[in-house]
Design brief:
The complex is a heterodimer of chains A (117) and B (423).
Chain A (H helix, E strand, L loop, with lengths): L1 E7 L12 H20 L4 E7 L7 E6 L2 E6 L9 E8 L3 H8 L6 E6 L5
Chain B lengths: L11 H24 L2 H22 L5 H22 L27 H8 L6 H13 L3 H7 L4 H17 L9 H22 L11 H17 L4 H14 L6 E2 L2 E2 L12 H12 L6 H18 L8 H15 L2 H15 L1 H7 L3 H4 L4 H13 L3 H14 L3 H17 L6
Antiparallel strand pairs in B: 1-2
The chains are: A alpha+beta (117), B mainly alpha (423).
Chain lengths: 117, 423
């Protein structure tokens, strides 16, 4: 199954740019450890993963009555804090949860990708 | 228990009921593990029981009722999977853990996979309100309309809740299989909380004619029995079972003529003595622990002290007050503090109890119980003014008709003679 893992800088994990260089380095080390743990686990693969620009870099498109509008900022206030994502291939939810424990203390949302019907 | 242990003259309908009660969860767990399809397994097993209801009275009860049901359900499943394949439909399979093996299904010994089914139902990724309902439906076989009755929601709401939960299990990939080590421990806590929620729902007073639903709380007790059988070494499972057994043994004494009867007023001859003995034996083997297991142990200890008292007057209140004090240190709960105040009032007099209520007003601002307890203790200590004010405050907050009538009667008693009537 594919899982979309959304990393948000809430709670104990402040925005990346507010971290000291040492903290950033420690955070990167955790991402590297996550990468290694995924590689070591059978049936698990990181399909893709990126750090994302913050909410002020976001552009939102909305279509209302067939009219597309383009606005500055994220589509919801909560999305301000999204700092990155992984797309994982993994056998089950518990495996994803276990692996995510390795990451820095983001608030993490896990969504299953739906198979084409 | 199977038909072998019931008298041969027992009518087939009764045997079928008993087989349903005893075997539903185990059969479903086996079918789920093999097919990795919750909906399919559940439908097929329901169909097998429907066929048994049709055939057994006519053809006689088979020698191995559980085996018959398993075979019948398995044939259903094969047929349905074939039909799905022909229609070109592909339903998602349940995810499984990497180390997961489907259970062996022998001819005489079917095996048991209920622990995996319970863990699946109580997964923390499911909404809390769905976990209890799902566990009752899948592990006990409680009908959806009965689960709706238990949680006081319309049947359609409960059916939708169960459907969504099953869908999430499949789509989100919540896996079958046993977690290990620390993870199993935290998952067991979730299971115990789930069972406790289902149990307390049965004793939550409703406004309708269905004041308590003790029959359905009994289904939650059966979940606790199963969990304890499956993981006898788990302290929280044993404490949970002890607590629920002791509380549930009082069910027949808890209401009378459509009203609730307080513990002190209950007719103790209506308590189920055999069940109390079972509960007390479970409590006796418990060692002090930590965390949620210790919370449950202390609650079970309190229930045991009530069970051991021949009448309300001989209750060991000082020991109960100590248990509540330990429970309050552990949980920091305002509700526990309130219960502790009641116990301390019984042990050391109403003034000592009243003192413990200080500081609870903000923390229990929306609960009528604080006013009810303070009113009671104030009346007992002769402070009619405080009693009146407290009962009125409780009445402002209480919405349950039965409890309101009780409070109105207490208030009237204070107004009549300035003191609480004899119990």
């Amino acid at each position: 199954m594919k899982y979309f893992v959304l990393l948000a800088g809430y709670g104990e994990m402040p925005a990346w740019e507010e971290l000291t260089p040492e903290e950033q380095e420690a955070g990167m080390a955790k991402h590297v450890a996550f990468d290694e743990a995924c590689a070591a686990r059978s049936g698990v693969e990181i399909v893709s993963g990126e750090a994302l620009g913050d909410g002020s870099m976001a552009t939102t498109l909305r279509t209302r009555s067939d009219e597309l509008t383009v606005t500055d900022g994220p589509f919801a206030e909560a999305a301000e804090h999204i700092g990155g994502y992984y797309l994982l291939d993994a056998p089950d939810l518990d495996t994803v949860i276990e692996l995510c424990r390795i990451l820095p203390a983001y608030d993490i949302e896990i969504r299953p990708a739906l198979d084409a019907p | 228990m199977t038909s072998r242990s019931v008298p041969p003259s027992t009518p087939p309908e009764r045997i079928l009921e008993e087989v349903y009660r005893v075997e539903w969860g185990r059969l479903l767990s086996l079918l789920v593990s093999r097919t990795r399809r919750l909906d399919l397994a559940e439908d097929a097993l329901s169909e097998a029981f429907a066929r048994a209801a049709d055939r057994w009275p006519r053809d006689g009860v088979p020698d191995n009722p559980a085996g018959w049901l398993h075979t019948t359900a398995s044939r259903q499943i094969v047929g349905r999977i074939r039909a799905e394949a022909i229609a070109g439909r592909k339903a998602p399979l349940l995810a499984v853990r990497a180390d997961w093996d489907p259970p062996d299904v022998g001819v005489d010994d079917l095996g048991d996979d209920r622990l995996h089914l319970i863990l699946l139902c109580c997964h923390p990724a499911l909404p809390v309100a769905s976990r209890s309902a799902l566990a009752l439906r899948l592990v006990i076989g409680t009908q959806t309309d009965q689960i709706a009755r238990l949680f006081l929601v319309p049947r359609a709401t409960m059916a939708a809740r169960l459907t969504r939960a099953k869908k999430k299990i499949a789509i989100a990939g919540i896996p079958l299989g046993a977690p290990i080590g620390d993870e199993l421990r935290s998952r067991l806590e979730a299971v115990c909380r789930t069972i406790y929620l289902a149990f307390t729902a049965g004793y939550t007073p409703s406004d309708g004619p269905d004041l308590l639903r003790a029959d359905l709380a009994g289904d939650a007790v059966r979940l606790a029995v199963i969990l304890h059988q499956l993981v006898p070494e788990a302290a929280e499972a044993r404490s949970m079972l002890a607590l629920l057994t002791l509380q549930h043994a009082r069910r027949d004494a808890r209401q009378h003529d459509g009203r609730l009867v307080t513990l002190a007023e209950q007719d103790r001859s209506q308590w189920h003595a055999d069940e109390l003995r079972v509960g007390l034996r479970l409590v006796d083997g418990l060692e002090p622990g930590s965390g949620y297991a210790e919370e449950l142990r202390l609650q079970a200890s309190i229930a045991a002290r009530h069970a051991r008292a021949a009448d309300a007057a001989s209750t060991d209140w000082p020991a109960i007050a100590d248990d509540y004090a330990a429970l309050e240190r552990l949980t920091g709960s305002a509700v526990v503090r309130l219960n502790r105040a009641v116990a301390v009032a019984e042990a050391d007099g109403p003034a000592a109890g009243l003192a413990l209520l200080d500081g609870l007003d903000e923390r229990l601002a929306s609960s009528h119980r604080l006013g009810a307890v303070r009113g009671e203790l104030a009346a007992r200590s002769g402070d009619a003014d405080l009693a009146r004010r407290s009962y009125r405050r409780a009445l402002e907050l209480c919405t349950n008709e039965v409890e309101r009538r009780h409070l109105v009667a207490r208030l009237a008693a204070v107004d009549d003679n300035g003191r609480r009537p004899d119990r």
